[in-house]
What does this fold into?
Amino acid sequence: MAAQHVVGIDVGGQTTKIGVVDARGDVLAQSVIRSDIYGADADAYIAALAVAVKAVIAEAGKEGEIRGIGVGAPNGNYYTGQVAFAPNLAWAADKPVDFAKKLSEAMDGIPVSLTNDANAAAVGEMTYGAARGMKNFIMLTLGTGVGSGIVINGQVVYGHDGFAGELGHTNVVRHNGRTCGCGKQGCLEAYCSAIGVARTAREWLEMSSEPSALRECEKITSKDVYEAAKEGDALALRVFDYTGTLLGRACADFVAFSAPEAIVFFGGLARSKEFLNAPIEKALNENVLPIWRNKVKIVYSQLKESDAAILGASALAWEL
Amino acid sequence: MAAQHVVGIDVGGQTTKIGVVDARGDVLAQSVIRSDIYGADADAYIAALAVAVKAVIAEAGKEGEIRGIGVGAPNGNYYTGQVAFAPNLAWAADKPVDFAKKLSEAMDGIPVSLTNDANAAAVGEMTYGAARGMKNFIMLTLGTGVGSGIVINGQVVYGHDGFAGELGHTNVVRHNGRTCGCGKQGCLEAYCSAIGVARTAREWLEMSSEPSALRECEKITSKDVYEAAKEGDALALRVFDYTGTLLGRACADFVAFSAPEAIVFFGGLARSKEFLNAPIEKALNENVLPIWRNKVKIVYSQLKESDAAILGASALAWEL
It folds into this structure.
């Protein structure tokens, strides 16, 4: 019964989560290390990561039984195994790092498969989550930014260069669109991320003198907007309505591309589905061709929040 | 040496083109029948088509050597083999027609593969044309409308329901966008098709009194706009600049989806590339993420116009 387990690693800007996962998707052991204390020294980070991974494998009692390691990381490239120019990772911010190769070497040759975090999440949904059994779906991760993982014919779309699925940087507002973190204007991410929601609230508060509980917040976050909406705050409710409408419009164009069975929402902001879902569905169905009207499912991630990222990355390792 | 030939059929609103094609992509014999004289009687049309196909096979001297028949038709569905609710085909305008099954029966069991015309063109480009050797590209057919065929990992994207690749109906103008033939507003097709180009010219002529050779045309077509642009007509040149800019912006979002190696333009309007190419490339590169800037190829179909549609459809039959 050798090699019936995999390791999933989720590399985030602040922390890296590691888990040993069995074929049923149960996380047998897990741990967390910091990602942000190694400065620009990628080798030091990868060495520390290998030590932590070995410790988790030992904790699970699965030494010698690991089939592969799957990693989800910002700007991770499936083809090259590199993490390159990731603004939130100091050790990969200004250079490409041969992450998969180096980690595999540090792990005594266990094969490592790498992709970006949103693609990993899509694989996780397909293997363990809301998209189980689906061969065609689009996953949108609504977090600090907006990421995406696209599955067509049961396979993640990597494209010619490994960077496919950057739907957060498609355009939703052509005229005077907000400047996005990427430097372009009017991107989906500038409106429909956690940061975008807070930005919409701040802009609207400034543009009117409408009363709102949000005026009492020192620095408005998307969580504040959610809490205000729950209390019935009219401005906060309109912020979600606007955000959902832009999301639905964008999704309509994504549907025209790959005709998915479902669009799966994931990430912190997706937990506001009680306010987002109605405007998403309305705008989606108003903006698709009649053949797709009321036919594309809108679903929300069912993975346990704490395990989701690890499971997504681990699912990638089964393909090794 | 049996079964080393295929038949390609291109179903258009007015005519249907038929050709016998060998493995090198040479058209050995071809003919044309009318598509528009059978009213709503799909069976009569398919019977006439089968007679014509048999005649072309006989003319090529390839009786008993046909491996399969590939068909490109408006609203053709690869999964179901149906042509359904195609507004330009009276015999399939208000109902689904089991085209592949019926034609195969009428052809004594020769297998028939069907897809929509734009997907067929994409397969043709991949097999015989500008996309030879490419595994990831997007084909845009700029004709009366705007069609698209998307290839990912060497496979045409059909999606969950067989209708993927309707990029002509993604949005390019959010506010006060033109009403498209599909009923939606601001679709790419409403601006960047032959009809869209003529419409832009007519709108702009009405909005100003700027002198233009186009004022002398009784009913402006995209060909008139092209001829005027060739003579240096300032308004006509701006129409192409605008059309190319909208195309380039739309393509930037398509690139974010599937990260293609190239975008391939096909169809009558694509012959205006001398005026369209510069604004397409400029807008594309201004609107993609830095990772794709100046990296995505813009290419134009190299297939002989007369054979392109037949070849595209025939290429589908090799997969049978």
